[in-house]
Fold MmgE/PrpD family protein.
Amino acid sequence: MKNHPVRSHRSEENLPREEQLAWKMAQVATDPVEVTDSAAEMIVNRFIDNAAVAAASVGRAAPSSARAQALSHTPSRGGAGSTLFGLGQDTRTSPEWAAYANGVAVRELDYHDTFLAADYSHPGDNIPSVLAVAQHTGKDGHALIRGIATGYELQIDLVRAISLHKHKIDHIAHLGPSAAAGIGTLLGLSTEVIHQAIGQALHTTTTTRQSRKGEISSWKAYAPGFAGKLAVEAVDRAMRGETSPAPIYEGEDGVIAWLLDGPEGRYEVPLPTPGEPKEAILLSYTKEHSAEYQAQAWIDLARKLLREHPDTADPAKVASIVVHTSHHTHHVIGSGANDPQKYDPDASRETLDHSLPYILAVALQDGRWHHVDSYAPERASRPDTVALWQKITTVEDPVWTDRYHAGGDRQSYGGRIVVTLLDGRTVEDEIAVADAHPAGARPFTRENYVEKFRTLATPVLGETEVRRFLDLALRLPELTANEVRDLTFVARAGQLPPAARPGIF
């Protein structure tokens, strides 16, 4: 890897195209280096992971609305069209709308992979747009794997270097460029075309972080699908010869100067050197639990506390619970966010998903986490849960903030918990990473990904469809173009809701 210095430039400096970050990212996308066996194996895992959480969510409101919008748009004459999760191989729409609808289904439950560093990301969000274009244009599994590897690489590289949340910019601003680059790799486009697509995708996906603040709405699920749709459209325009604002990152009125660290801002963005494999996917990790990633380790610790110290789950015996954790966790999903909604039993599922006090209270009492039951209104409003929930606060601990940003074995997404009981006893424990993390107690393997898919998808798809999809997904690198077009699933009768209220389309 090579670190590339990136800063804002005045217009008169006339920064050469070859020195612009978007061009260097495009060069990574056009590098013909093959995907390594280890990266390809993990891409298959994450493809199955995405399908698992999409299958579990296809009947929910947001994915159903997105699917209805997508069904209003037929495939163009220039391709075969793309499939929609839940409807099977025979129903197709245009690729940008398939990227959008399938992206919403993947993101709805907040249950797929993650990478956290200078910023946040769910790099599996690259998959729906790359898959949609592969189906529409007739690309095989080898090309699909290459495109996905590029999407993961560039999003993770950006997240390692550039903080968006610090400036209240939503993290899809790293996804738009990475998805555009991944599509460019899939299609074998030139550096020039991908450069223009990256610039357009970034320009159109810089949105505010209000989507993850306060009363969190269904837009949290839509945002990545929206970025994927814009990435497909950006590539289409660039292929037609249209250009983008440049230099998009470094310009005097560009992203760095006005949306990020400003004219004095300096970044070092790591990118693979020519011929170096794109293996950033191996740095990411998936979720065992359907909750914001920074809550994963706390659910695991709560299960342990309930086994060893059951009094910690009883509000009649607890005086206070204080979570000592990183700046990110405290300010994003903890009491440091200063969001009263994080303590509101009537809050939306999306809000509860981003409330560590709520998640910890329920996990302490139930000893498990479930993607539906743990968010049910009757569960959130249970009096003993509300009482325990109100006694939980978070504080930033510089030690855990340092570990959050550390590399290698010291990196941590957990912290220390102190439970003070009313009889004067205290219970203390800590956890560094989630059990399913590569450095955790039970790292996820292929077997776990397949089991997650079976658990989430079988009630919705049925055993026959589960077996059919897994047979294809497990052979992803060797699939023919026709088999790639079958990489979707159909829900059983009664699993999808009837048509909702109509819109414009």
Notes: The chain has 20 helices and eight strands. The two ends are 46 Å apart (CA to CA). The longest strand covers residues 318-325. The mean pLDDT is 96.
